[in-house]
Amino acid sequence: MYGWRDVAGSWPETMQQPSGWVSSLDSVRQEQPFETPLSSSGELSSRPRSSRALLVAVALGIVYVVWGSTYLAIRITVEELPPLASGAWRFFTAGLVLAAILALRSGWRRLRVTPAELAGSFLLGLLLPALGNGFVSVGEFMGAPSGITALLIAAVPLWVIVYRAASGDRPRRLTTVGVLVGFGGLVGLVAATGVGGQVPWAACLIIVVASVAWSFGSWLMPRLTLPGDPFVTTVYEMLGGSLCLLVGASLRGEPLLPHAASRDAWLAWAYLVVFGSVVAFTAYVWVLSAAPISLVATYAYVNPVVAVFLGWIVLSEQVTLTILVSGAVVVAAVAIVVSSERRPTSRVGETGHAKV
Fold first, then answer.
1. Over the stretch 88-127, which tens digit does the pLDDT of each residue have?
2. Domain, as residue range, for 20
3. What DSSP character marks residue 20?
4. Is 65 exposed, middle or buried (0-12, 13-18, 19+ CB in 10 A)?
5. Cα-Cα-Cα-Cα dihedral of 70, 241, 231, 289, to 10°?
6. pTM of the predicted model, to two decimals?
7. Distance between CA 174 and CA 172 in Å, rounded?
8. Are 83 and 137 a contacting pair, CB within 8 Å?
9. Average pLDDT over residues 121-144
């Protein structure tokens, strides 16, 4: 699930997402050339235009498919592994892998942070990986289909606008219309699945709480003291989130150590670690520096479509006409809000991430 930067406001230097993380698109782009853990900044500027266009298409395709498929992978994982504990293992492992990559490329000094930056990253870990992804895992564990979960989480940009309005930031009229339409679709989606439907009400509400927590983290991020390197922020965010998830797992009485499960469950878990939390995030950060913001932001409403399709084709999840219509309303509202909040002449950092 990891980004809703188009609506979150300014973001000094960092980004989270999918499997989702949150940031401000322009604030990353202004720091070009940008070095990812897997490629140097010089490689970007030296590539021919045709080669660069192909790389943009590949990177964006990874973001579309991988982040859209994380909901399916979570659903398969929690069928046999505990939702919060498996999330703790996932983010702890991904955080260590990313830290190791950064250290190998740039030395351990790259991971140095101040106490304030560490505290800010850990707070994001609580709101995004722990409450955001953790509650998604619990909701799917309780029976929420992966496609329905993705559509409910798609409302994150709408909640971000609510937080901005509550803090005194007056949204544009078209943005307000988009938020109202989106919440209408959200209500229809919950009612279609929770009232006499195949999904328990509690599961739907937990997913909505995850969306609220994720959007609050998105809104709060620009107001926190964070490391200047988005990858360093992500390392400490994932490690902090893993600790919070471990505490939650203990309170739920889940087994805290990995245990025997089917090959499919562990493969899905490994997919979340490697592709959801490392590969897709790296591709996302790179494509931010190489493609127009308007193109990159499309993942916010492509991911739910990918998730619904994969849930239907792989797990035979039921997709009714009411679900399709309500989901389409939510996705369309997100597109309206993202488009409305994109100001070509705005100052850097005021346009607008989301998932882990």
1. 999 999 999 999 999 999 999 999 999 999 999 999 999 9
2. 5-341
3. B
4. middle
5. 40
6. 0.81
7. 5
8. yes
9. 94
Q: CA 308, CA 313: separation in Å to the nearest integer?
A: 9
Task: Report the 10 Å Cβ neighbour count for 220.
Answer: 18
Q: Report the SS3 class of residue 39.
A: strand
Whether 82 is in a domain gets the answer yes
What percentage of the chain's residues is helix, strand, coil (to nearest 5)? 70, 0, 25
User: What pLDDT does residue 15 have?
Assistant: 35
> Which tokens hold the place of 96?
């260590």
The one-character DSSP state at 355 is: B
For 233, other C-beta atoms within 10 Å of its C-beta total: 28
pLDDT at 31: 43
Looking at the domain assignment, is residue 242 inside a domain? yes
- Tally the domains of the chain: 1
pLDDT in tens, 73-92: 999 999 999 999 999 999 99
Number of helices and strands (H, E) in the chain?
Answer: 17, 0
Tokens representing 218?
Answer: 């998105």
